Each structure stands twice: as structure tokens, then as C-alpha cells.
Amino acid sequence: MTPYFQKTYQRSFGTWPLKGVELSKAITAAIKVGYRAFDTAQMYQNEAEVGAALGASGIPREDLLVTTKVHPERYTQAEFLPSVEASVEALGTVPDVLLLHWPPASGEIELPLTLLEQAQKKGLTKHIGVSNFTAEMLHRAVKTIDTPIVSNQVEFHPLLNQDVLLRASAQLGIPLASYCSVARGEVFKHDIFAQIGAGYGKSAAQVVLRWILQKGVSINTMSTKPANISANFDVMDFTLSHVDMARIEALTKTGFRIVTKDIVPYAPDWD
After folding, report:
1. Is the pTM of the predicted complex or chain greater than 0.90?
2. Which of 9, 44, 75, 179 is catalytic?
3. Domain residue spans in the chain?
4. At CB < 8 A and 24+ separation, what contacts does 161-168 make?
5. Tens digits of residue pLDDT in 17-27
6. Is 44 a catalytic residue?
7. Residue 174: CB partners within 8 Å, gap ≥ 6?
8. Most CB atoms closer than 10 Å: which of 116, 142, 202, 241?
9. pLDDT (tens digit, 9 = 90+) per residue, 231-249?
């Protein structure tokens, strides 16, 4: 990965569940404040709209980093590559990163990983990665394919301990990227983030996002409000102290996990 890729991928704008005018306005606002990495998926059913909005932005394609994800129901020899070709057509461009959206329900990751690698070799994506893989799956993945895995996108926020995944990430050189970065608002029930933020002139949400970045994890954020879109991007001009990082770290014992099998049937048995 180039230094530009690594820097830009640190802050990505998520597009689920946006569609239509709301999506277009949000992307326009995100572009305006500086976002250049954008995240979509076959499952979101908005790839064409994302592609159109980015195409209309006037930003040179080489300055954008576009991520999309393959739906787990397309993990077959017959459907995988055609689905990626459809994504490329919808986006109007080859994605920079193509992810497996979820591990297969069977837990047998070898076939979709092999097909993912084939997609990269056929020029249907520049880089490949995964989402919602456990540490055990990451270890299996690097034994299955030779192409580098540039990201494992997972639920990551201060109310959930992800030390097992962080260790695997460091050991295998597979960076983590967050979704549900503010735990769908659950973090705001904890006053500590606002208290810490007051000392830095930052909001509670900005403190949460900065904590994630300082854990070495990229952030994906989504909002439709221009002020929040701007604030979510404005997290690179301060550094949390070791003391504040530790205070926040203590909250990971809360064990608040959003993505369970009750919500998403594809969810694996987490580490």
C-alpha cells in the first residue's frame, strides 16, 4: 500500500443505509470536508448511487479510495466473479478495495478467499480484504491465499474488548478497520468521553474516534448532518494522553457488542 492509501484509508465515509438524495448530499458534504475514502457494499444496494456521486464530485479518481464488499450469498463459483463485475459496472470504476462482507455461514472461508484472490488477479479490484473475520479465521486466511489482505473491517469501539483481534492483526500484518465506531450512540451514555473531550476542546464522539485511531485501527463513520460529518473528520489535530487512553480502555470491559447472530445471521462465533 502506498503512503497515500494508508493515510487516506484511516478515515473512511460509510454509506449504509443511505440512498437517493440523502446519500448524494452526504457524499457531497463528506467530499467538501476532506473525505477521500468511501465505503459501500453489494448488500447496501447503493453502489451505483455512490459511484455516480463520486463521479460528479470533480475529485480525480486517483485521489479517491473506494471500498465495496461481496454479499455472502454470492460466495459460489458461479456467482462470485459475476457479482464483482456487476459491482464494477455499478460503481463505474474498479474498487480500490474489495472485501468479503461476512464469513460464510458454514465457516469454510477457503473458497470465497480463493475467489476473492481471483477477482484481484483479473483486475476487478486493486486490493482485497475481509470483514467480520475472527482471529482464528485470519490465521487460516493467510495460509489460504498469497495476496496480501489489506483490511479486516469489524465492530470496534471503546465498549468492546477486541484485544484478541488486535493481537492477530499485529502478528499477521492485517490492519483492522472499524464500523459502529460510536456503538450506534451507546458511548454517549458514558460521561467520561465528554469529560475527556472538554480538556482537548473536542466532542465526546471525536474522543471516541481518536481513541480508535490511536489503537491503530482505521475508522468508518457515517452521518447525514454536515456538522457531524465535519467533526468526524476533524480528529487528527490532537492526541489523547496515555492516562486518558487507559481511562477509556477500562470501558472495554463493558462487553457491549452490537453485531450478534440475533441481528446478523452471518455473524461468526466471535473470539
Report:
1. yes
2. 44
3. 3-186+217-222
4. 161/252, 161/253, 161/255, 162/252, 163/252, 164/135, 164/271, 165/134, 165/135, 165/138, 165/271, 166/215, 166/216, 166/217, 167/135, 168/135, 168/138, 168/139
5. 999 999 999 99
6. yes
7. 129, 138, 141, 142, 149, 150, 151, 152, 168
8. 116
9. 999 999 999 999 999 999 9
